[in-house]
């Protein structure tokens, strides 16, 4: 009798909670911002690698709505790191065919950063080799709250009928309306929490929690994880036949 094998599953969209920059630095007696800088170097490596391993969508959790509670100097340092990353990487990302978009509430970010984000989105809009989404001042509950607010106005003003609301329609109001759901969510540094990341979108995602601190997370480790998940049976709630 022939053995039926599952066709390999494609991991198309990987989302990463990049955790452990602070610990990486503290363990070396260095300021936390050095860890974030090292983390930004990892972002470069992982972005370069993704298309080679079949990942067409990469979403990175760079700054959460809760991260404002950190020391003011660390927040300012992170904002400056985001500005520098965009200024430094824009041309290379564009040449490599990376389309960059941002999710999250831009309202609380500074004007210079908002402008750099918008210009990078515009510059890379025609690319599709890799879709890189950076979550900046992002929180899943905040995203849903903003979506519901807009939706409520559309209902009140008669553009949407409550009976027409479907899961797809709700997805349209989220920041991620242009993204497929993540196939795989990775969190580094040993913490096993979702921390308000892609709450709606994670419904059927695989989760991988790895001990590695983000500044040590290598392309080889990502490749191993993606290969390990490819072929894992994801049935989306259906009973296996
Ligand atoms: C969590 O580590 C990390 C962050 C809050 C910042 C993530 C930012 C980067 C990786 C830098 C660059 C990103 C881009 C997109 C250019 P943590 O500080 O919470 O670490 P800890 O838990 O060890 O303190």
Provide a descriptive summary of the structure in words.
The chain is an alpha/beta fold. It has a single domain (13-139, 181-229), classed as Undecaprenyl pyrophosphate synthetase (3-Layer(aba) Sandwich), CATH 3.40.1180. The chain contains 7 helices and 6 strands, in the order βααβαβαβααββα. It has helices spanning 21-26, 32-49, 72-95, 111-123, 140-156, 167-173, 219-229, and strands at 13-17, 57-64, 98-103, 130-138, 184-187, 206-209. A 6-stranded parallel beta sheet has the order 3-4-2-1-5-6, with helices on both faces. The protein is globular. The model has no long low-confidence stretch (mean pLDDT 94). The structure holds farnesyl diphosphate. Farnesyl diphosphate binds next to α1, α2, β2 and α3.
- Tell me the domain tally: 1
Principal-axis shape equals globular
Strand order of the largest sheet: 3-4-2-1-5-6
Rounded to the nearest angstrom, the distance between the terminal CA atoms is: 17 Å
Q: How many DSSP helices? A: 7
SSE topology string: EHHEHEHEHHEEH
The CATH level-2 architecture is identified as 3-Layer(aba) Sandwich
Determine the fraction of residues in helical runs and give it as a percent range. 25-40%
Radius of gyration: 19 Å
What class, by secondary structure content? alpha/beta
Mean pLDDT: 94
Write the layout of secondary structure elements.
Elements lengths: L12 E5 L3 H6 L5 H18 L7 E8 L7 H24 L2 E6 L7 H13 L6 E9 L1 H17 L10 H7 L10 E4 L18 E4 L9 H11 L12
Parallel strand pairs: 1-2, 1-5, 2-4, 3-4, 5-6
Helix pairs in contact: 2-3, 3-4
Bound molecules: farnesyl diphosphate.
């Amino acid at each position: 009798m022939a053995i039926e094998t599952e066709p390999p599953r494609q991991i198309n969209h990987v989302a990463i909670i990049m955790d452990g920059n602070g610990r990486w630095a503290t363990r070396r007696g260095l300021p936390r911002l050095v860890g974030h800088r090292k983390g930004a170097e990892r972002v470069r490596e992982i972005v370069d690698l993704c298309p080679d391993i079949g990942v067409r969508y990469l979403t990175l959790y760079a700054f959460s709505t809760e991260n404002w509670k950190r020391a003011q100097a660390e927040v300012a340092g992170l904002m400056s790191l985001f500005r520098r990353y965009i200024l430094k990487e824009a041309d290379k990302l564009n040449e490599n065919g990376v389309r960059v978009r941002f999710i999250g509430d831009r309202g609380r970010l500074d004007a210079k950063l908002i402008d750099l984000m918008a210009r990078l989105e515009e510059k890379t809009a025609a690319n599709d080799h890799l879709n890189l989404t950076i979550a900046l001042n992002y929180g899943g509950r905040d995203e849903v709250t903003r979506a519901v607010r807009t939706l409520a106005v559309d209902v009140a003003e008669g553009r949407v009928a409550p009976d027409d609301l479907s899961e797809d329609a709700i997805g349209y109001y989220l920041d991620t309306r242009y993204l497929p759901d993540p196939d795989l969510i990775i969190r580094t540094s040993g913490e096993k929490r979702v921390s308000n990341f892609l709450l709606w979108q994670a419904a059927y995602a695989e989760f991988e929690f790895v001990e590695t601190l983000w500044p040590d997370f290598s392309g080889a480790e990502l490749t191993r994880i993606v290969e390990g998940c490819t072929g894992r049976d994801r049935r989306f709630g259906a009973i296996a036949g």
